[in-house]
Design goal:
This protein is of the alpha+beta class. It has a domain of 53 residues. The protein has four helices and three strands, in the order E-E-E-H-H-H-H. Strands 1-2-3 form a three-stranded antiparallel β-sheet. A hairpin with a 7-residue loop joins strand 1 and strand 2. The longest helix is centred in the last third of the chain and has 13 residues. The N and C termini lie far apart (73 Å). The mean pLDDT is 85.
């Protein structure tokens, strides 16, 4: 399905929702709905949905006010977890963690 705009001589163009298929060597079209009365924004939204495009871009939804670097911290935490150091360190003193606090 697709949205097609068909120009008229003296009146505004017709906006039609159509589908197309091939029969033999010819392309056949069938009109499913007349969208001429729809506002332009709604027709554009339907066109985007049919093309599988996002309706709103991500940069229109969110604005970045501040950005803090965190990649180095994430890398260190990943290595700590991978080596198992996080199980050795504890917030409270315990028998298992006392040997590393000396």
């Amino acid at each position: 399905m697709f949205v097609e705009r068909i120009p008229n001589r003296t009146s505004p163009p017709a906006v039609l929702l159509r589908e197309a298929w091939r029969e033999g060597g010819r392309v056949r079209k069938r009109t499913i709905a007349n969208l001429s009365d729809w506002p332009a924004a709604r027709v554009d939204a339907l066109r985007r949905v049919l093309r599988d495009e996002p309706l709103v871009r991500a940069d229109e939804l969110f604005t970045v006010e501040t950005s803090l670097p965190h990649g180095h911290v994430e890398a260190i935490l990943a290595m700590v977890r991978r080596l198992g150091v996080d199980t050795l360190l504890a917030a409270k003193r315990s028998r298992t963690a006392t040997w590393c606090s000396r």
